[in-house]
Amino acid sequence: MSVPPPLSPARLDRFARHIVLPEVGGAGQVKLAASHVAIIGLGGIGSPALQYLAASGIGKLTLVDDDVVDTSNLQRQTIFTTRDVGYGKAVSARRWLANFDDTLSVDVSDTRITPGNAAGLIAGADLVLDGTDNFATRLAVSDACVAAGIPLLSAAVGRFQGQVAAFAGHVRGQPCYRCFVGDAFDAEDCDTCADDGMLGAMAGWAGSLAALQAIKVLLSGVSGLGDPGWGRLHILDGLAPGMRTIRIVEDSTCKTCA
What we know:
Blueprint: H1 9-14, H2 16-19, H3 25-33, E1 36-40, H4 46-56, E2 60-64, H5 89-100, E3 105-109, H6 118-122, E4 127-130, H7 135-148, E5 152-158, E6 161-167, H8 177-181, H9 193-196, H10 200-219, E7 232-237, E8 242-247
Parallel strand pairs: 1-2, 1-4, 2-3, 4-5
Antiparallel strand pairs: 5-6, 6-7, 7-8
């Protein structure tokens, strides 16, 4: 196994507030710098999650989104500006990253993710963060993660509610996303925020929590940041406000991970 290179003085200065945390430390920061995260969907969840993951020093990011920026996105998709309207989200996100930290390695794809291409789009990632807005895509991503042995961080938001959960369906005894939602949602038939509305700040809460959970997954076994919490679904209520956590159990009949 190759030893990751040490952080340069400039990187040490940039991430000093991380490194002084005993739960992260230098070893944790080096691990983040050597990590590769694929973000599927760069909308309300993917935007703030990308910002905090980039700010944490994740070394490589793969960005996947086939949509273009629309004016209505600007209310909650925080990496985009008026200048980005009409341009692809993946390319616009890469431009934001280049301005924010040009040392990060970034791959982009404006291809719509499907069961046929999901494996190729997430290949090589240490973690996949899914912030897409329909069950068919989410299930395609989850199935590909299980097949490739890649952990999945799944996040969703709508109106004043959010959900964030980490899955390791490739590990015996752990549920996958399909264990949670079942097989009935393989069609693209779910409601969207265009139909139901969404408080912009709610997307920020879900996205930042997803980034926090992603960092915990990546640093599991390296730092003292805590248990990645496989199969625990965090339900966010923006009206209360509050959060509760439930446990998802493995489905012994799941066609993906059983």
